[in-house]
Amino acid sequence: MAKIELQKLVKEYGKTRAVHGIDLTIEDGEFVVFVGPSGCGKSTTLRMIAGLEDISGGNLLIGGDVVNQREPKQRNIAMVFQNYAIYPHMTVGQNIGFGLYTSKLSKAEKRKRIEETGKILGLEKLLDRRPAALSGGQRQRVAIGRAMVRDPAAFLFDEPLSNLDAQLRAQMRLEIKNLHRRLGTTIVYVTHDQVEAMTMADKIVVMRDGNILQVGTPTDLYENPVDVFTARFIGSPSMNMAEGTIAGGALSIEGAGTSGLNLPTHDGKVLVGVRPHDLVVGEFGGAGLSASGTVEAVEPLGSETLVHLTLGKAQVIATAPGRVVPQIGSTVSVHAGTGSLYLFDAVSEKALGRA
Amino acid sequence: MTVTSTELKANSRDIRPGRIIAWTLLLIGGLIMITPLLFMFSTSLKTSGQVYDLRLIPAAPTFDNYIKVLGDGRFMQWFLNSTIIAVTVTISNVFFDSLVGYTLAKFEFRGRYFIFLAILSTLMIPTEMLVIPWYLMSSQLGWLNSYWGIMFPGMMTAFGTFLMKQFFEGVPNDFLEAARVDGLNEFTIWWKIAMPMVVPAISALAIFTFLGNWTAFFWPLIVTTSKELYTLPVGISSFSAEASIQWELIMTGAAIGTIPTLLVFLLLQRYIVRGVMLAGLKG
């Protein structure tokens, strides 16, 4: 169990700075997910925590101790890799037991731990098999087992589910979450998949270009994104964005009408965001945003239908109840109620508030 | 019996011209390769009077030559010498070539590329050019007429280093980093994780090195003067340098000499299979 602190942490490769002095505190037992697009520095940060990358500046503290100069093995952390990295020449039991290679436990004690770990992960009948004879999900479990068996202070996961198919990924998400609940060990998890971040994290860290943009609970990030990037990155499908202008206490958007909005004190150009699930197909008489546009494509999902529309210059996605599937090329009305519009400064792209 | 159209198609695919030419060429190649070996074995079963009777199957096959050669203490000594030298040099090559190849493939350090080029460039120098310096060195260091004298030039090779480096480059870093996080030191990572993943390359290197040293003739001939230290090829050739050429004994010695090479090949070739390494990665 350990608290992990990043203090002005910097990573430089020659003259290129990959991580720009980030600050973050990961509480003991917390499940923290780093999320962001490729090249945002999330994996580099994780590797610095693991000790696989040198730290160019700042401090890394695990359990209150500065560990910048410590070797990976001295940090008492375990890591699960994207490619699982389970050793093909060893059996499942040997792979899991390999986490204990340097431990001073007796053989019997090691065996006991391996069996217990295998049991927790549902691998008890596969301990004598080689990785080649396992499915993707089982291999992933072996990798987790190798990390678990050491009873480390923290687990680091580097995009562990990205090689699994959608169904297995959903299952493993749940398993990892349950495991965290059971073990209570600190987990730092890196992914580019915002669904993984939303479903698993206690706390999400959104990164971009080597900087932390926002830290918060999944609901926080969904409800109160600090900027356009986070707003669009969190939530699926992405938040719709359109240009608008606030003047004289009124918001105008090309191709849409607004009424009864409680606008922030700001004059000038803004970006108006609305989540696809808040932009609903149908006539509506109340306050908020209403518009009509041409249907470009429809994606029936069963419980609802995603409708791709052109509203003025903007391409947006709206939602229609499951049974309603508008014709492509037809014109439909959409609306979003008050409180569902997110306003951002057009230049800085920082959040101004909701309306 | 009726022939279905599928069977006809399958048959016509089997006997298309390209395939016939390929099989014919392979057959001819195979015959060319095996004929000297058959003659070697055949001659080993002949008496000295029958050696120039070029029939493949001897008129009166005899194992006398084998009894004579195996009963000759010198032959067994040469066989032992060759075994000691080939096995030692093979182990040394597998160890050192792998270690250097791994270091060059997996560690970032200043001058890495230059060192690799320097090692590779030694491949361009023919053995004949090196023999005199080797001899002078052996002579001054007192290595003439010793196992070490025979072995030292081949204890590590540029070819082996190059081969192992190329294979180690294919080992994903995740495996090594996982071991690093698990607390292994670098030497143990190389030995326990990286080496088992390049078993096909190790097998290939071991076969090449063993065969090369088992059949080595030129350098062992130069560096040894005592018959006690002759290797098998040098020893066998000494049969021809004696009063008259005893082809039947030479061929018998050669036939016995092929057994270890066959054994090594049969033992190791099954490890030369690809794809072992990727089994631990994403499925």
From TrEMBL, chain B:
Q: Which InterPro entries match?
A: MetI-like, MetI-like_sf
For this protein, the parts annotated as crossing the membrane are: 20-41, 78-102, 114-135, 147-168, 249-268
Q: Per the database record, which ranges form the ABC transmembrane type-1 domain?
A: 79-268
The record's Gene Ontology biological-process terms are: transmembrane transport
Check the record and name the CDD domains matching this protein.
TM_PBP2
- Family note: Belongs to the binding-protein-dependent transport system permease family.
Name of this protein: Sugar ABC transporter permease
